[in-house]
Amino acid sequence: MKQIAREVRTLVMSIIAKREKAIQNGETTKDDLLGLLLESNMREKEQKGNSDSIQGMTTDEVIEECKTFYFTGQETTSVLLTWTLIVLSMHPEWQEKARDEVLQHFGGKKPNFDSLSRLKIVTMIIYEVLRLYPPAVMLTRCTYKIIQLGNLTIPPGVLLRLPILFIHHDPEIWGPDATEFKPTRFAEGISTATNNGQLAFFPFGWGPRICIGQNYALLEAKMALSMILQHFKFGLSENYQHAPYTIITLHPEYGAPVKFQTL
Ligand code: HEM
Q1: Where are the domains of the chain?
Q2: Which atom from ligand 1 is nearest to the alpha carbon of 140?
Q3: How far is the CA of 260 from the centre of ligand 1 (A)?
Q4: How far is the CA of 192 from the centre of ligand 1 (A)?
Q5: What is the C-alpha to C-alpha distance for residues 22 and 17, in angstroms, rounded to an integer?
Q6: Which segments of the protein form a coiled coil according to its record (predicted)?
Q7: pLDDT tens, position by position, 149-203
Q8: Superfamily of domain covering 75-262
Q9: Where are the alpha helices (DSSP H) in 49-119?
């Protein structure tokens, strides 16, 4: 672990050093998170007139921010797309519906932001994949004071686990077909799907610590899926074994061998 941590630090440090040099040379690098972070940090330090000022972020803090965004943002969206390809291979009729919608909106052109947010079928599919295969299978919380939860009184220091995966599969909420892939349950939006707004669908968490990257992740997934659908038909290889399992995020244990065929 320590070796990996050192490697990641060195990698991020070299990216930061390059960026800082570019900013000092007057090149604009503001169009991504690291650029924004470094520019605002440098400005802050300049204004305070003291590079040791506690107002700016330290290099270690910038590194930690980069690690948070990279590790929380990369793996989660990647497994979401992986499960989407698996599920659409298992349900070719939904693959066709999604492709029809994408071609109707974009034809062969690169999808744009406005139209991506208007994709209805693709959104229903992605929600249903997030329900069945939530990349984060549970949330963990620790009580810091006495908490009254219904008729339970929980003392401070208790670790609570909110099992997203189980709640997403509960037949009492979703009906007897809870384990089936049925994107139509999201046809009228999330609140209708969850029995009039019960808090039963929360792949991105909930409350003050809800995923900060939620909109970005959905946009990224829709963009990637649309571009795949525009160019390829896909199906599972005969080697595929369905075995969802968790190491931090929910993965297919033996990978996702998918065969692509150009359209
Ligand atoms: C499908 C993709 C994603 C899923 C399923 C997901 C899921 C989650 C969940 C469940 C939480 C809440 C954790 C908790 O309450 O304990 C969370 C928090 C967070 N996510 Fe995501 N996430 C995704 C994509 C992203 C992306 C793309 C980014 C950044 C670019 C990101 C950045 C974060 C950050 C920084 C937090 C912590 C927020 C806070 O504590 O205030 N996530 N995510």
Answers
A1: 1-57, 75-262
A2: 16
A3: 30
A4: 24
A5: 9
A6: none
A7: 899 999 999 999 999 999 999 999 999 999 999 999 999 988 888 876 678 999 9
A8: Cytochrome P450 (1.10.630.10)
A9: 59-90, 92-106, 113-116
